[in-house]
Amino acid sequence: MEGGATFTSLGYNLTNSGAGTPFTATGDITNTNPLLGPLADNGGSTWTHALLPASPAIGRIPFGVNGCGTTVTTDQRGVTRPQGPACDVGSYELMVNQPPAITSANSATFVVGAAGTFTVTATGFPTPTITLSDTLPGGVTFSDNGTATLAGTPASGTVGVYPLTFTASNGILPDATQNFTLTVNTRIYLPLVLRQAL
Asked: Which CATH class name applies to 99-185?
């Protein structure tokens, strides 16, 4: 190293350089193609090299070693690590396919004549798409353009209870379904009380 500096490996590094590298600690891999994708926007605030499916960096660091899953709980993009039983080497944690799960509440209440909104949330990888079956009250719509939302102003005459079914799917089975209840209540108007001047 320049200027007499020393380098100490803490282990579990991966380099395509061969002999003479300072990577000689437990878990270090040298002279090996890391099988990385190009530098790209893979999410997060900075660009990263994605791990290709056969990368030797995948699942190399045992849980608890070098902070894996204990003090180091996310990768450079903010993705939870580890995704499996062990952490991946480097700034990118390969996300494991996960079936969807709907995580939001299973009921909401809107009021006739008042704007209401409810966000349906789900987990899974790839990101699930959420669909709705059954009929909504007039004035209320459902859309999933990246954020699944019930929104609108219930029309007059729509007071009642609406049983709905949300389905989240991402190509990884099983799909997630949720029985959901949308209640539309009557708008209550408080009487106006006038005080007579004395």
From this structure: mainly beta
pLDDT given for residue 142 in this prediction: 98
- Return the domain boundaries, the chain: 1-95, 99-185
The CB density around residue 10, as the number of other CB atoms within 10 Å, is 12
Low-confidence ranges of the chain (pLDDT < 50): none
pLDDT, position 61: 96
User: How high is the pLDDT of residue 175?
Assistant: 97
